[in-house]
Amino acid sequence: MTQPIHVIGGGLAGSEAAWQIARSGFAVVLHEMRPVRGTEAHKTGTLAELVCSNSFRSDDAETNAVGLLHEELRRAGSLIMAAADRHQVPAGGALAVDREEFAAHVEAAIAAEPLIALERAEVAALPGPDWGHVIVATGPLTSSGLAADIRAASGEEHLAFFDAIAPIVHRDSIDFDTAWFQSRYDKPGPAGDTAAYVNCPMDMGEYDAFVDALLAAEKTAFKDWEADTPYFEGCLPIEVMAERGRNTLRFGPMKPVGLTDPRTGRKPFAVVQLRQDNALGTLFNMVGFQTKLKHGEQTRVMRMIPGLQQASFARLGGIHRNTFINSPRLLDGALRLRSRPHVRFAGQITGVEGYVESTGIGLLAARFAVLEAAGRAIVPPPATTALGALLNHVTVGADARTFQPMNCNFGLFPPPDPRIEKSQRRSSLIARARNDLSGWLGHAEAAE
Predict the structure, then answer these.
(1) In the structure, what pLDDT confidence band is assigned to residue 209 with cuts at 50, 70 and 90?
(2) CA-to-CA distance for 317 and 287, rounded, in angstroms?
(3) Domain that holds residue 203
(4) What does the alpha-carbon distance between residue 31 and residue 131 come to, in Å, rounded to a whole number?
(5) Fewer Cβ neighbours under 10 Å: the N or C end of the chain?
(6) CB–CB of 403/397 below 8 Å?
(7) How many domains are contained in the chain?
């Protein structure tokens, strides 16, 4: 009997990896420590719980690299994408989900799969070779014991950054005499909606007062051992952005472009956007408003926003420490830990940033482990695809000396033929990716 493949961590990457392994006909043991042991950020013990945003970001596969990654994952039979598509909520051009229904869908699918055994217990150290093939997908909230063992096995210090969570507001507490529904430039989303976001406008005086309050508000204090840990640039707390310049927020999450206040017919000076967070439409997430303000200060400062003066918060923002490994130095091209090649890494801990990016690396780690367990050659996806570009970045493409988490973007793709006109290069990249993914998927099917 073939030894089962072990997956440690039941987040997006781990759940996807377990699903892919089982769908390939191999037994898998999925280890998840929650709820036996919780984390600083998770609220439940459910598999694939979304800790931060409920958005999978752009679903536009014609112009956006993340949208293209969505398409590739769907074509590869992703459980995570199937659950996201099933439980999407209005979000303009983005794919956002009801987080509770999404996680419940993933857990139910895992529980119903006879080849997956779910074990609820902490794995506090890297397993030895006697476990056979292992995939570590513990994410940015890896437990301290396992993190210490990974550090010892790799001979490297973990890199670390902080990830902040945005507040969630009850819809019925939003003042719609001030706020209005509109997506930027009225761009339709996957369901055809053109008014998926709640917009709270600010004039110059209101914006200046808000920034002053952010800068003066009391923040969460860091522990001594956390004091020198850098933030991930793609998920900065709003107060940190405000510290970088008076207008930073106006050119970031509070930019008013593509929006017109229906009461004035003019573009506001600044706008706070909220995005639907559940299928019922009763909860709205403050877009880009991750924060480390103390809870009392959050309530006071957020209620300075026009339209949110009486806001009731279903969840206030928070902050937690995330960790990731220096993958270009530690992993080979098949995501194996060089010092212990029976162990693979997947998901955010490898240094990809984002839900679908984590899912993609989980899918690849699973496929590689299955091929190796079956004694077949590992063929990675071409670097010209979104999946291949991400894999290439975390294994050989990034500079190990300056390695930081990275979202999927066209800057990770090999450039197109320079003879192609500039206006056609994006469409050329996408067409090439689709064609090359078809070849890779066809090769994988032929090998089964």
Answers:
(1) very high
(2) 12
(3) 164-321
(4) 13
(5) N
(6) no
(7) 2
